[in-house]
Amino acid sequence: MKKFLVAAILAGVSLSASAAETIRFATEAGYAPFEFVGADNKIQGFDIDLANAMCKEMQATCTFTNQSFDSLIPSLKFRRIDAVISGMDITAERLKQVSFTNAYYDNSAIFFAQKGKFTDLASLKGKRVGIQNGTTHQKYLMDKHAEITAVPYDSYQNAVLDLKNGRLDAVFGDTAVVQEFLKQNPGLGTVGDKITDQSYFGSGLGIAVRQNNTELLGKMNDALAKVRQDGTYKTLYTKWFQQ
Question: Which conformational region is residue 184 in: left (phi greater than 0), alpha (psi within -120 to 50 degrees), or beta?
Fold first, then answer.
């Protein structure tokens, strides 16, 4: 009888462990400090640390795959992944396709160029500005500033490289990411003021899930609230944005 009870307990423990939920995240890991590939070839950054902290609260295992930004939402809709965390702005257009968690980061965007070359947004009229394909930055330029030539890239690293080599006049991206580029490239500087247009950047960044996956959405919002309350979020924010 004792052997039977021990075996039953062990079987229960094994079943519980194997039943732990796995959440498959995808990201475009070329957007430091939100997500990037480190020297050890592992994906890291604020978004990755935040997702792992949330998964710990949910008692789930996180996995991360790196793919192009414009493929993230299609991969989610076709069930290749469970969630997207990739510095993605919550917009009305995207909400037609996916659901978002509550915002986890207040976002804004800004232009940057060779230091001192341009003074404001008006001075970029007729110029070539690099953006990442499929991003809110691309849509903003196309909708609001047709006088600027938007040049799409698969990654911001390639856009910055062309900017430094004179093939672009400026690049447009999220303020936190631009600040990271400027740390590494002292010859570059911002152009004009931060842009916080509510239709494009003012709603913050969110984690995307499929529209019918209300269970996962609820769990993520609960986990996000907990890591804010217990100080984990503040610790991660300081680590990635205030050093």
Answer: alpha
Q: How far apart are CA 53 and CA 23, in angstroms?
A: 13
| pLDDT tens digits, 36-80 | 999 999 999 999 999 999 999 999 999 999 999 999 999 999 999
Tell me the CA distances in angstroms from 22 to 61, 148, 216, one per residue in order. 5, 44, 11
Is 215:221 a contact under the CB 8 Å cutoff?
A: no
- Candidates 91, 135, 100, 58; CA nearest to 209 is 100
The residues near 77 (Cβ < 8 Å, ≥ 6 apart) are 97, 98, 210
Question: Is there a cis peptide before residue 33, judged by omega within 30 degrees of 0?
Answer: yes
First-to-last alpha carbon distance for the chain, in angstroms, is 60
Among 6, 5, 97, 101, CA closest to 50: 101
pTM: 0.81
Handedness of CA 51, 29, 80, 101 (dihedral sign): positive
Distance CA(91)–CA(208), nearest Å, equals 11
| Residue carrying the six token digits 């995307």 | 208
pLDDT tens column, 169-214: 999 999 999 998 898 899 999 999 999 888 888 689 999 999 999 9
Q: Could you identify the residue written with the tokens 């430094």?
A: 164
The answer to whether the beta carbons of residues 26 and 65 sit under 8 Å apart is yes
